[in-house]
Amino acid sequence: MNQYDVIVVGGGPAGYTAALYCARAALSTLIIEAMAPGGQMGTTDQIDNYPGFADGVNGFELAMEMQKQAERFGAVSVFAQVSSLHLDAPVKKICTEDGEKYESSAVILALGASPRELGLPNEKNLRGKGVSYCATCDGMFYKGKTVAVIGGGDTAAADTVFLSKICEKIYLVHRRDTLRASKAYLKPLEKCENVEFVWDSVVEKILENGKVTGIRVKNVKTEEQKELTCDGVFIAVGNIPNTGLVKESLRLTPAGYIDAGESTETNLPGVFAAGDVRQKVLRQVVTAVSDGAVAAHMTEEYLTKK
Ligand code: NAP
After folding, report:
1. Could you identify which of 75, 131, 184, 236 might form a hypothetical disulfide with 126, taking C-beta atoms 3.0 to 4.6 angstroms apart as the criterion?
2. Cβ(118) – ligand 1 distance below 6 Å
3. How far is residue 271 from each of residues 93, 107, 203, 213, measured CA to CA in Å?
């Protein structure tokens, strides 16, 4: 039977926390995840700011624990790509690309966000051939080699520190002359001796011969261009919310996030949004799990009233 009290879409920390709380509230709970548990958290090597892990924790291991914990209370996980969501009627309908159809009285959208692309012409084709958006996943392919990291936020800083332990040399290319990354990420970065900072610079072109061979960067202040030889390019220029499936049915903010406040309620009854896909001030694992708990609580209230 494919009918549930609540379906959680997305198996990152927000989704699995929502599933845990819903299952513990005795709601029949399905969680649909496209890839593997954890979302972006699952691709993070070391998480040092999630309370309870004094020595930090690997993101994928934490995700596996979150999945096990939710399933211990009866939540069911399905791994499939959602192809459509029908959310406006009291009975919500969800279809997956493998042809399954699911129904529920409430839906928690924990759709997360995906890495933003630079938008260069050959970027998509070179994915897997030197272009990567995940240092933890692909870093080992560049052992002893030279890579470039593009970006100036927490992800770029954390990726650079991670790669500095594997690669011979890292160019950190940022479009301004100061990093946006917080101090917690800057301190370990300062200690990396094999990192060369390329300030005020944007990538004009990814150089290739079928595989990445380097990048051409332009200094935005002087207009000077130079080529940097490297085997890999790690792009860490922020994220975009995964709202493609709901952009017609739900109210979004101008930046494309689901317009839901701290209560996680969206403009549709019985539909809640949790984690990075929701409009919020701080996107961290700890705020995602908090959202998951709130969304489950609001779902329970909604179903009780119904
Ligand atoms: P972010 O904070 O949005 O930073 C994106 C960086 O990329 C900024 O430095 C930005 O430059 C630059 N950028 C944006 N578009 C660009 C373009 N087209 N060309 C060149 N550079 C561009 O993204 P993030 O670092 O991925 O962090 C996202 C969220 O995850 C944040 O809330 C962060 O705190 C959280 N987080 C991530 C990790 C992790 O390890 N992945 C860890 C902790 C927290 P400007 O600075 O000039 O805008």
Report:
1. 131
2. yes
3. 12, 5, 40, 47
- 125 contacts: CB under 8 Å, gap ≥ 6: none
Q: Residue 187 class from Cβ within 10 Å (0-12 exposed, 13-18 middle, 19+ buried)?
A: exposed
Q: Indicate the top mutation candidate among 132, 163, 175, 178 to test ligand 1's pocket, ranked by most ligand atoms within 8 A of CB.
A: 175
Atom of ligand 1 lying closest to residue 158 CA: 40
> Is the full-model pTM beyond 0.85?
yes
Catalytic residue set:
134, 137-138
Helix, strand or coil, per DSSP, at residue 1:
coil
- Per-residue pLDDT reduced to its tens digit, 128-158: 999 999 998 899 999 999 999 999 999 999 9
Pocket of ligand 1 contains residue 59 by CB under 6 Å: no
The residue whose two tokens read 């890292």 is 170
**Is ligand 1 within 6 A of the CB of residue 95?**
no
* Structural domains present in the chain: 2-114+239-305 (3.50.50.60), 117-235 (3.50.50.60)
- What are the tokens at 305? 């009233």
Q: Are 223 and 255 in contact (CB under 8 A)?
A: no
